[in-house]
Amino acid sequence: MDTLYLVIPCYNEEEVLPETSKRLYEKISVLIEIKQIKNDSKIMFVNDGSKDKTWDIIEELHRTNHVFCGVNLSKNSGHQNALYAGLMEARKYADIVISLDADLQDDIGAIDEFLKEYYSGSEIVYGVRSSRRTDTYYKKTTAHLFNKLMISIGVDLIYNHADYRLMNKRALDCLSNFQEVNLFLRGIVPLIGLRYSIVEYARNERVAGKSKYPLGKMIHLAWDGITSFSIKPIRIVSGFGLVIFVISIIALIYILFSKIFGNTVPGWTSIAVSLWMIGGIQLLSLGIIGEYIGKIYSETKNRPKFIVSDILITKNE
Length: 317
Hints:
The chain is an alpha/beta fold. The protein has helices at 17-33, 54-64, 79-90, 111-119, 137-152, 169-175, 185-192, 215-229, 232-260, 268-277, 280-301; strands at residues 4-10, 42-47, 68-73, 96-99, 124-131, 161-168, 196-202, 308-312. It has 11 helices and 8 strands. The model has no long low-confidence stretch (mean pLDDT 82).
């Protein structure tokens, strides 16, 4: 038997925490009872600078039952950073850590299979969604396109996997060596390269509340993933620039012939050539290159990804 920590990042989750904590406690109690995990296993909530009563609820849970523990970040640092903070704290005490979202759309029934794969020798176990029946058509479509896009540009991504995964202590120690400021754990964890397995599960509906991942945050996460793991966007811009250049040469020849045969108005030639040669493609190119330079700038500053203001944990004697 090994010590298990469940790590759950939370941002404004006061509506779901009462039910989530109840279900997770029932689950971990059963696992302890059937001797799948040790009795010093914990449920760790990471408060990502919530503006509601999320941290107050976590504090009350800890006071009531020490199986619950908490990590409080000083401000909102983003889902990936909050998750990383919890993983790094949990690895100090746990043999294995399972990360999942607070809304319990990740089926906790799959934890049994995670442990089965772990005890069979896997050091990382990925939870992969076999069904998205509870997702809207829009979310299904965008998720599918996101996965296809990331794989097509060369990111070593587990298809239909989010952040529901098991990692043992060695895998977490390896993860701690990755010092990126712009975290995209779905792409980083497969780079570790240890023995892994996949467990499929059906995605559930949220137990309460609304999604804390609106379109804007999803696009930001996707862009972070793309620019952190691939330079293909720059190569695409280069190819696009070459195509535009060839078209501009053809257009220039047409414009010159038009001028020779008098089919133009004064000034039209120079304006048309300028529009073809420069314009939108330059702005697009500069924008994408600027994104990569911005990422380099963020990395070179080497600022902390998060700051922990409070930790609530009581180790079993």
